[in-house]
Amino acid sequence: MVMLQTTDRVLTQLAIISQKDYRDFEKFTNKDFVVNRCGSVLFATSEERARSLSQTLALQKELGVQSRELDNGELTKAVPVIKPDGIQRAIYCKEDGWVDQWALLDFYRSTARDLGATIHQDVEVARISTMQSGRFLVEVSDEEFESTNLVLAAGEFTQFLANQLSVGVPFTCNRRNIAILRPHKKPPDIPIAECVDDEWYIRPERERLVLVGVGETDQVEVPTAPGVIEEKADPRTHPRIMEYMKDRYPSLQDSLVMRISPGIRAMTADQRPIIAQANKPKGLFLCCGMSAFGITHSAASGRLMASLVDGRSLEREFEEIVHEVALDRSSLLPHKSG
């Protein structure tokens, strides 16, 4: 998803930058392939979270995001499949949407190749080390590569790779199940709709399918090697989905559940990403801890990382953000008592 509506200033700032870049991509390719701008609705069922949504709305307006509050009539018009019972507050942003991630990745790959980059796909990094010269040696399958700079952007496996260079990366991992539903009847156009109390959400998917993000998450061990996380969905997920659809989206309760799959998220303590140069070894850079915002922030994080690697002056829009996504920021450091 590409969400400007967040509860955090830095996350929204990164999303704003990425949204601008996505529009530029679309102009460059003359195709609307990047963001399917269906809009997003955040809603709360508790008084506490309703108050929090008011603060979120104030933040969005301060940052120039065109969010607004919806009354119950506007809510049911914006989300025709929702049952509004118990909803105390809802806010809406028409600029939000979801991304065809494969089309986006194809765009990134083809653009990089056009600029002269060599891309190796479907290879597994076996080992990373530093040489006496100070350069990095990356062993991939039966090949080796040397490099002055090394960017680790491997999601939940970034910590495993960084450990080989004796670098600690402070994030934890959790697993969240995602389901794809095929309604028996063609559903009406819907935005992304997320309950901020339990973090369940729905959004449209290609071919008139509906994607459901299951609210419950399980913390899992940070992987110590590729493939060590069991990629199996919790068998209890299917009945939970049906029960949730019945309670909140009754017109979708008879949908066919086509697939349930787990997704692993790497998350820092303050839920902001790490986009930074490590103190040592020289030339090591980290881009990780994206939580659920990997696609949302991909363009912004790529631009910021390019500036850091090149050592060039930061663009003004990154000057405030760079300190908030640093590896050594205070919110990620262990707290000492006494």
CATH class of one domain: Alpha Beta
Portion in helices: 25-40%
* Radius of gyration from CA coordinates: 21 Å
Low-confidence stretches: none
Task: Walk me through this protein's architecture.
The protein is α+β, with helices and mostly antiparallel strands. It contains nine helices and 16 strands. It has helices at about 10-30, 45-60, 70-80, 100-115, 160-165, 235-250, 300-310, 315-320, 320-325, and strands at about 35, 40-45, 65-70, 90-95, 100, 125-130, 135-140, 145, 150, 170-180, 190-195, 200-205, 210-220, 255-265, 275, 285-290. Strands 3-4-2-11-12-13-10-14 form an eight-stranded mixed beta sheet, with helices on both faces. Strands 6-7-8 form a three-stranded antiparallel beta sheet, with no helix packed on it. The protein is globular, with a radius of gyration of 21 Å.
Summarize it.
The chain is an alpha+beta fold and 338 residues long. The protein has helices at 9-29, 47-62, 72-78, 101-114, 158-163, 237-248, 298-310, 316-319, 321-324; strands spanning 35-36, 40-44, 67-70, 89-93, 98-99, 125-130, 136-140, 143-147, 150-152, 172-182, 192-195, 201-205, 209-220, 256-267, 274-277, 284-288.
Tags for this entry?
globular; D-Amino Acid Oxidase, Chain A, domain 2; three-stranded antiparallel β-sheet; alpha+beta; 16 strands
Topology at a glance:
Blueprint (H helix, E strand, L loop, with lengths): L8 H21 L5 E2 L3 E5 L2 H16 L4 E4 L1 H7 L10 E5 L4 E2 L1 H14 L10 E6 L5 E5 L2 E5 L2 E3 L5 H6 L8 E11 L9 E4 L5 E5 L3 E12 L16 H12 L7 E12 L6 E4 L6 E5 L9 H13 L5 H4 L1 H4 L14
Parallel strand pairs: 2-11, 9-16
Antiparallel strand pairs: 1-5, 2-4, 3-4, 6-7, 7-8, 10-13, 10-14, 11-12, 12-13, 15-16
